[in-house]
Amino acid sequence: MKLKEYGEVEQAASSSRLEVGRLGVAILFMVAVILFTGSRFGENEHIYLLVAAAVIGAYMALNIGANDVANNVGPAVGSFAMTMSTAIIIAAVFEAAGAIIAGGDVVTTVKSGIIDPADIADPQVFVWVMTGALLGAAVWLNIATWMGAPVSTTHSIVGGVMGGGIASSGWAAVNWPAMGAIASSWIISPIAGGLIAAGLLYFLERTVLWKDEPVAAAQKVVPLLLALMAWTFTSYIAIKGLANIATITPPLAVGLGLVAGVITYLVAKPRIARKAPKLSSDRDGVNQLFTLPLIFGAALLSFAHGANDVANAVGPLAGIVEVLDGGGVAVDNSSSIPLWVLVIGALGISLGLALFGPRLIRTVGSEITELDRSRAFCIALAAALTVIVASQLGLPISSTHVALGGIFGVGFLREFLEQRMGRVIERVIHSHRGDRHFAEVAEVMHKFQHAPPEEKKRILAQLDDMGEEAVITAAQQRRLKKALKRQLVKRSHMLKIASAWVITVPVSALLSALFYFTLRGMMLP
To answer: Residue 68: what pLDDT?
Structure first.
């Protein structure tokens, strides 16, 4: 065997061992859940159903961590604001903290209005519906993660509950207006996130990055952006992350955010002024100013995500425990989620992120479009800002779709600016057609398009002092056209992700219905 082939075999074997190790750790976690649940409900006559539900809830939590958390830290990793290991540690800690400290106070997923538990007369049937919903949503998330497509875990569990409800009680069991609102979020969420992220980036480009002295301009603009970020994230955490442990009205949340914004501005402005002389006077220098804000943003987004989305994993589990351990279904939204159930969800999300999250983090952070720290900052800020605005307007929103929409928006803005620059370059080249310096003009314009902003003026200054006459070849013209039309958003990733979004609810519903009928067939005499 050749040395190269031997190396390839070794690399494949190492990758396989790593994958087996990840699966082994995940299995050990679920075994621990089995042992804990079994010891806790050893005297309960429904112990086997309780253990099975706890394992499925743990499996769902693992898949949420593997798929959904990437949206919070992907842009920061893709822009090299922090390493993959640092991102996983920060996200795991803050996801778990958000789930345990501010996790769902009620079984929000079950009582969300998709189906009414009162329509399911038999508590045993309700257990089968919730188990099928959890399993259907978890299997779909597993498939989506394997495909490399970040999807909404909320939509997954909503589809699961809907499918189980239809299977058990017919089409009338579903609140179709609520489902229509969820379907509209497939369009509203990414468009809103994309427009806000693109608007923030364009503002930053015009006021800072396109200036002759971008770092000097950043000393005036960046403190304001950081203050806006502090206001946005404080309000976001108050509204979305702490709603389950304190009653915070929107005006109070905005007021707290305003205080945080003012403090941030007063602290950031002198710090940036002291740091500016040490930075290179270009885009890279400006990007250095966004490193710490991106780390804080990833941590806060993870906390809010853990507080809200843990219910997607353990809400149905809590409903099952309520029936099998308490004897019935509470229909007044008064049932709290037990702490041990929240801990299973928190640990599962964190462990799923650490074991299987890197693939989706890379997809979100670097495979859709190229991100630097200024672009990643605009995406993180847009995600929080969009959720706050949409919540106050009563619009249905998906934080996953918002974050991905922000990435697409930044990428498409870059394409628009590149294409506009390309049209200008084409006009310059056309005006020199027949000129003895035509070839040199074409070559310099090609370099100009791909040069960083600080190089563009220097290249333009050289246009009046070009070399000898030359003739541009057809091949050079084709290469120039290809460069002018290059796509900065990978269309294959965009189509794959959009397709996964559209089918999330129906696929989760179908899987849930299949699992419900399977459980019913197994459990009925």
So the answer is: 84
- Comparing 265-274, 367-376, 514-523, the range with the smallest average pLDDT is 514-523
Whole-angstrom distance, CA of residue 182 vs CA of residue 83: 35
DSSP for 439-508, written as a single string: HHHHHHHHHHHHS-HHHHHHHHHTTTS--S-----HHHHHHHHHHHT--SS-HHHHHHHHHHHHHHHHHH
Q: Give the Cα separation of 63 and 137 in Å (integer).
A: 9
pLDDT-based confidence at 185, cuts 50/70/90? confident
Distance CA 316, CA 174 (A): 16
DSSP string, 133-183: HHHHHHHHHHHHHHHT----HHHHHHHHHHHHHHHHH-GGGB-HHHHHHHH
Alpha carbon distances (Å) from 512 to 7, 165, 169, 271, 501: 44, 9, 14, 54, 17
Q: Is the dihedral of CA 13, 19, 368, 79 positive or negative?
A: negative
The C-alpha atoms of residue 78 and residue 98 are separated, in whole angstroms, by 24
Residues contacting 185, CB < 8 A, separation 6+: 395, 396, 397, 398, 401
Between vectors from CA 30 to CA 28 and to CA 34, what angle results, nearest 5°? Answer: 110
The Cα 242–Cα 263 span in angstroms is: 21
Residue 301 has what pLDDT?
85
Helix (H, G, I), strand (E, B) or coil at 216: helix
What residues does 174 pair with on adjacent strands?
A: 115
Q: Is the pTM of this model over 0.85?
A: no
pLDDT per residue as tens digits for the range 413-460? 888 877 666 666 666 676 667 666 677 767 777 676 666 555 555 555
Cβ partners under 8 Å of residue 318, min gap 6: 107, 110, 335, 336, 337, 338, 341
